[in-house]
Amino acid sequence: MMKHVYLEGQKINDLEPFKQVIAKNVRNKVFSMEVARNLDNHNSLILSGLDKNLTMRDTLNFDVVWEKHPDPKLKVKPDQMKVFLDDNGEVAVSSNTAKQLTIFEAKTGKVLCKATCGELITGMCFSENGKHLITTSSTGVIYIWSLIPSITKALRGKNTEGILS
User: Fold this and answer.
1) What is the residue extent of each domain of the chain?
2) Which terminus of the chain, N or C, has fewer Cβ atoms within 10 Å?
3) Could you tell me which CATH number the domain at 28-155 has?
4) In sequence order, which ranges of the chain are alpha helices (DSSP H)?
């Protein structure tokens, strides 16, 4: 029996969407990846945690939009464990093995805020109203983080000049 695949409510024929378009060997361990698909006037963005680095790429040609490296002063550099992008491609979030959570402006890589959590973050998402970031931890605790108003506006798609303008 043939099963059909649906994407955003529309039936996709056979396996056509699974054709490989771009293959790029990044030669690192990829711990987590997110794609922002609902972008206006821009290609989709791919955010990935590669070993110690955090990389934002454009899906059209796989060019690096921005990349973050760990502080060279650190003796032990943390791995980027989880990444998350909002649907509008405005806000990016990462967590690492140093139990740090960082929120970035997705298109520029500008750090908007940082926090330290008591455990490793195993999952994350934004609340529907964009006022909170919800994370889960390796010990089974769910955290609800309040977001500053400029991030909430960006999550609602009302940002036109940059998140901290």
Assistant:
1) 28-155
2) N
3) 2.130.10.10
4) 149-155
